[in-house]
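Hey, resending since the last one bounced:
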Amino acid sequence: MRYQLLLIVVIFLTACNSKVKQANKRGLEYMKQNLYEQAITEFDNALSINNTWFPVYYNRAISYANTRRYKEALADFNYVIANYPDHADAYFNRGILYENLGIYANAIQDYSQTISLRPDFIQAYHYRGIARFRMNDLEGALKDYNEALRLGKNVDLEVAKAKEFGLNSSALYFNRGVVLQKQGQLEAAVRDYTEAIDIDPSSARSYYNRAIAKMALYQSEEALKDLEIASRLGFEAADKVIADYFKN
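The structure tokens again:
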């Protein structure tokens, strides 16, 4: 799961040394290029001048997280949240950090706090749904996916298709399809996988999962077509299913 890159919260842009702002700006430019180690160096420079300016801690936390320096990232997120407890994005990104560490209960708590601060935060519902799914809370996951999709109805489809947009409605439909499939709601799962494919035709896993659901519905011919597409897209599990079930 990728960390959300948010530049600077406007409320923090006050009473700051210009050298700190310049170092922070350089760090942000490195972040845009995914050059996180260089960004961290700039943020360290900024904090050596002024160690109380919250945006630098937030941006450094994002950079630490993207270099898998989770302990340092957690410390920076904790600092931001302790000093600015209404910072929804800090809770959200700390939730992602906990989720990547497999600490799902903490992730759910942070996503819930994000939602309490910003009830229209679509990504928080989506990611909380993923964490709940990881904890085998299928009903909770389904509820979150439904709410994320409901809120996403107002998002332009082209924006939703964009890989960098946090909603990623293709993934949302896929994830909801997985829950529905596990619950035995196979036809509903097929519909969600179809939605995911319509948004992202390169989603091999969506073709594969739709094939498995169709096999359970005794739609073997359609399932084989999906498996062949998944195989062409490089999804190796599809080759095994074809070999095991469709070749004599």
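DSSP finds 14 helices and no strands in the chain.

Sorry for the duplicate.
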